[in-house]
Amino acid sequence: MIQATATGRLGRDPEIKTTNSGKEFASFNIASNNRNGDATWLRVTVWRQQLVEFVTKNARKGARVMVAGGLEIRKWGDEAEQQALEMDCHTLELYDWPDREVEAIDKRHSDDIKDALKETYAPRRQTKVRQAQAKAEQAKKELNTRRAKAPRDAEELPF
After folding, report:
1. Angstrom distance (rounded) from CA 58 to CA 65
2. What is the pLDDT of residues 134-154, one digit of tens each?
3. Which residue among 45, 85, 106, 132 is least crowded, i.e. fewest CB within 10 A of its CB?
4. pTM for the complete prediction?
């Protein structure tokens, strides 16, 4: 099986399906434009329960995603023999999701990655908010200083 990474946008909301043995999995399609401007579609199946829950909760039609996993060309049908490019996903990165933060889930280190991302992005976000608040305060003080120094009447004008 070929291991590959693909990026694109979800063509529809992920579907949750169940096998005959009762195991849940998620299925969705992603589209990516090729050089000609045509869309190339890839069927993605997610088997890991943690990823299934994550995708179901956060991924929506149109969201940008990066998926990695085993790539196969699957064929079906008798006469026409249709084929599709399919991937069994073991890693997924979602770029567009409710709070606009990048979250990665990897099959080996998912909790470590999630904790690292939270530790990395939360302080940065808080720092940026504090910096923006400080700039706004500084601008407010400068404006009040200019207003205090500005002439009040026409008599106070220098010319």
Report:
1. 11
2. 888 888 888 888 777 766 665
3. 132
4. 0.55
